[in-house]
Amino acid sequence: MPERKKRARISLPRLNLSFLQRKSSDGKPRPRVDSRLRQQVILVVVLLLLALVFASLNQRISQNIRLTTQRDQLSTEVMQLTATVQALETRKAYITSEAAVEEFARERRMIREGEVLVVPLTPPGNPTPTPSGFPTPHPTPQNWEVWWALFFGD
User: Fold this and answer.
1) How far is it, in rounded angstroms, from Cα 31 to Cα 87?
2) How far apart are CA 24 and CA 26, in angstroms?
3) Which of 5, 88, 111, 141 has CB 3.0 to 4.6 Å from 145, enough for a Cys bridge?
């Protein structure tokens, strides 16, 4: 039978976990300083958690305000685009109507079958009439004349 090698025993130092117990190692109650320290640590942890919750809440509120503003802007833009579409549809309906086709043809001096096109011609020479004359403006009265007329009724 082969010989077994002996394992070396390693001894680890004992950990002192007495601070976790309510009573000290000699049986006496621990001082109140540890319980106050524990309360303060718990209070700090709770305050940190509350700060994180409020920071998250603040971020969500600001994001909600930003999204609400964007929604309102987009709603306005949609209403404007809807009005534009309606105006264009109305214009399209008019352009494809008979009245628009006839108006287009009349502007370009086209005629229907059976009509006669009449184009007025201006006489040669002096095509623009001369004005008959402008009325002469009355001279503006002087100040003393205005006052004289005001007091004496002239």
Assistant:
1) 85
2) 5
3) 141
